Every structure is written in structure tokens, then in C-alpha cells.
Amino acid sequence: MSKPFWSGVFPAITTQLKKDQSVDLDATAGHVEALIKSGVKGIIFLGSLGENQALTGTEKRLIVEAMVKVVNGRVKVLSGVAESSTAEAVRYARDVQKLGVDGIMLMPAMLYKGDPRETIAHFRTVAKGSDLPIMIYNNPLSYANDITPEMFAQIADEKKFVALKESSGDVRRITDLHNTVGDRYALFTGVDNLALEASILGIDGWVAGSGIAFPEENQYFWDLTRQGKWDEARTIYRWFTPLLHLDVSTKFVQYIKLAVQETGLGKEWVRAPRLTLAGEERKRVLKIIHDGITNRPKLPKRK
Fold first, then answer.
1. DSSP 123-168
2. Are 209 and 256 a contacting pair, CB within 8 Å?
3. Parallel, antiparallel, or unpaired for β 76-81 and 134-138?
4. Which three-class secondary structure state does DSSP give residue 97?
5. What is the pTM of this model?
6. CA distances from 38 to 8, 46, 243 (A)
7. Measured between alpha carbons, how far is 167 from 84 in angstroms, rounded to an integer?
8. Per-residue pLDDT of the chain (303 residues; tens, 9 = 90+)
9. In degrees, to the nearest 5, what angle opens at C-alpha 14 toward C-alphas 104 and 125?
10. Are 277 and 253 in contact, with CB atoms under 8 Å apart?
11. What span, in angstroms and rounded, lies between the C-alpha atoms of 287 and 282?
């Protein structure tokens, strides 16, 4: 089996905001440092969790420019591409290439449910528009476009497509992908509460969400799966799962940002139309987070 182009934990980081909803680059940079310290191999800025679509084009480019400098080559830097038109996606990919990213995570065109021919045309056109390697993001539950294993086989001739983030919510897709495209792509899971199941079936990486609030535990759990220590991994996973469930909700941005705040790694402020949590919902999510903090597993010291 060939070595995957990318592998390991590539967390999707939040875009930290101030209470007035302006971008907080310093706070985002602080979280970056905690993630790098934990041992991640890459960081994905401006994904869904990064509130890509709620930010202006100018803000997104400023964030990428600043974070490339902060990371300074220590891990891979990817930017989400979630534009509503193919032309804008090409323009954005070209711009972030100039700003120094190592690759992009490409979503289907937003706001339109394309058929397979249209979705593939969008991906191929964006690939031709820059020299960047691409992770294709499949999330039919959120974005209404399902990139099937057969579609991944159709586009396997494009060398810039190097990885895929599988977030259909159907863990059987991992095996279907192996059977259909072999090791053509680096295979990442993007569903937090299927991370163990996907690992057992065979993946190269994890685009982690909830784990950005618990980076040390997240990385330790991942390392256990790489070592095949399934009993130990299962123990951590049972502690982790209520927190990982926060990633699979309509309000996953608010939930995870609240977790990040409660663990001292950022603030909960979000960009409208999202609002911070209130009332019974906030109490419920806080209890999950605080229970996780209280019962945090004791990790062995790193060598």
C-alpha cells in the first residue's frame, strides 16, 4: 500500500470572534498553538466549524494570511472552500495558494443540489484553477450533495485530488470506498462519533471537531487507534463519546465553541445568524462539557 499524501489528525478549527462578532486573530492563533502542541499533523481553517459561509471574502483571506504565518510550516495548513459558484471557488483557491496554504478542503458548490455530472464538473474546474492538492469533503447530510464511491472512482484520474473527508454518517462507506477506489486517496473520517468505528475499518486521518476542545485527549485516542490498542481506545472513546456527539448537530458550531470556552481555549462568540446558546439547551450542553472535564482521563506522560 502506498503512503497516504496526508495522514493523522487534521482538526477543523473554529474562527475565534470577539463579542462584537469581529474576527479575533490573536485568540485563533492561541488555539492553533495548543493544537500543534498536542501533536496534530495539520489544521483546517475556515471549514464548516470555522463559519466559512458567515465570513466575508476579505475576512477569510486575512485569516488565512495570518494563520499561515502563525503555523510557520510546523504542520500542514488547509483552507476550506465553500463558495456558492464555481468561479468564486476557483478565485478563492488561487488566492489562498498565493497566501501559502498547503492545500484546500473542497466542498460542493453551496446552496445548490447538483447532480453527479455537475458536482464532478465543479470539482474538476476548481482543481484546474490552482496547483494545490485537494481534500474533497463529502457531507450529504448538511450539503445535499452525496459524493459516492463510484463518483470518487470517476475523478481518480485528477492527481490533485489526494484525500477525501467522508462525513455521510454511514460508516459502511469506509469499506465501500476501500473496495471501490483502494488506496487511491488518503481517507479521513469527518464524523467525530464514528471515529473508532472508522478507524477499525481503516482510515488514514481524522478531521476532528469536538476534540479541538480536548486536544491532548483527542491525540492520545488517535494514537491508540494507530497502535491497534483497541481496548484502551474503547475506554477513552466511551468517555469521549458524549462530547463527540456535539459535532453532529445543527448547532455544532455553538456547541463546540462553548466547549472550547469551557476548557480555556477560546470564546463562544459566533457570527449571526447563529446565536450563542441560551436557556435549557445551554444548560444541557454545559452539563455534557463539564461532565467531560470532571471525568477527564489521566493520560500517561509523553516520552
1. HHHHHHH-S--EEEEE-HHHHS----HHHHHHTTT-TTEEEEEE-S
2. yes
3. unpaired
4. helix
5. 0.96
6. 12, 20, 18
7. 20
8. 467 899 999 999 999 999 999 999 999 999 999 999 999 999 999 999 999 999 999 999 999 999 999 999 999 999 999 999 999 999 999 999 999 999 999 999 988 889 999 999 999 999 999 999 999 999 988 888 899 999 999 999 999 999 999 999 999 999 999 999 999 999 999 999 999 999 999 999 999 999 999 999 999 999 999 999 999 999 999 999 999 999 999 999 999 999 999 999 999 999 999 999 999 999 999 999 999 999 999 998 876
9. 20
10. no
11. 9
Q: Name the architecture of domain 8-294.
A: Alpha-Beta Barrel (3.20)
- With 0-12 CB in 10 A as exposed, 13-18 as middle and 19+ as buried, what is 126? buried
162: cell is: 489526494
Query: Alpha-carbon distance 174 to 302, whole Å?
Result: 31
C-alpha cell at position 4: 497516504
Residue 41 identity (one-letter amino acid): K
**Whole-angstrom distance, CA of residue 214 vs CA of residue 153:** 36
Q: Are the C-beta atoms of 129 and 90 separated by less than 8 Å?
A: yes
Single-letter amino acid code for the residue at 131: D
- Domain positions in the chain are 8-294
- Residues making up the chain, counted from first to last: 303
